[in-house]
Amino acid sequence: MTEMQNTADAARCSGCGIKLQTEAQDKPGYVPAQALEREPVICQRCFRIKNYNESSSVTVLQDEFLRLLGQIGSKDALVIHIVDLFDFHGSVISGLQRFIGNNPVLLAVNKTDLLPKVTNWNKVRNWVQKEAKEIGLKVVDVVLCSAKQNSGFDRLLEMLSHYRGDRDVYVVGATNVGKSTLINRLIRDYSDLDQELTVSRYPGTTLDMVHIPLDDGKSIIDTPGIVYPSRYSELVSPQDLGVIMPDKPLKPAVYQLNEGQTLFFGGFGRFDFIQGERQSFTFFASSSIPLHRTKLERADELYADHAGELLSPPDRSSLEKLPEWTRHDFRIPKGRHSDLFISGLGWIKVNNDSGAVLAVHVPKGVKVLERPSLI
Q1: Among candidates 109, 117, 104, which has minimal Cα distance to 142?
Q2: pTM, 2 dp
Q3: Which listed CATH number (3.20.20.70, 3.40.50.300, 3.60.20.30, 3.20.20.140) goes with 52-226?
């Protein structure tokens, strides 16, 4: 270990109290090695807040995140929970209520820009409220927003003012849900930060929560993003992350399928229509993922021979780094309109009037579930 690394290991950020490290830029406490010579020494996230009024995403593993959440239960706080509408069931913190006690939760649902423009937003909002309740999350309100289009944030700020009172505000969320964008907007609208502010203004905190002071003496507390390994987006390479995460409105692909047909999501996953009358299925995924239809009886052979080539992305070298596929079976009763949700990859809407027996194949550990149709 170098002398610089030893220095980092012994030091803590004078802004947030996190133990400093020089190895992993996307982990808590990162500081460039050359910055260790400065006084005071601060982590990159505090540096960006101080100098640019900007918060960057930092992640921790699930156990550490839950330990941090447990501290909120003893506070009088408003919790803003940010989730990704495209990956709702993969990004929502299902056990949040156990950790935060009776503190109110304002649910900010980001990435509305990814749904088709003809979407019935009242229906989506009702869907979110119902699903949150099923998960056990008690929310005082739901705000649909888009960080990319800067829409819905005025409404969110109104709700924050309405529900906050004189409380601190804790912002929680998984990785890649747009948490830092919201934090940055809150800093601009609520904080008295300016270019002359010294980082020592931030109270020393446990681990990697950053306290951003508000004009009334309270704080916005920026918590790290939680990593959920059950999301496909946490498994793929950076190059493939740009493929599976859509950056423009989804274009639903409707397929009329007969039983005994299979459809591949590139080399990322597979959908089998095992039994049922001919019917339509609507596929919601990034337009960068090609869909390939074949017969069910040929699907195993096709994947064995062409994964990473005809069935790509990802390429063969990236596929070898992913877990082996596992199969999830579903029997959808007649008349029930469901989505088969694949965390981080998208979903298949079952336009079902006659019932169907279906299967989804994805890498082991990726969350797959049946849910009421979103749209």
Answers
A1: 109
A2: 0.84
A3: 3.40.50.300
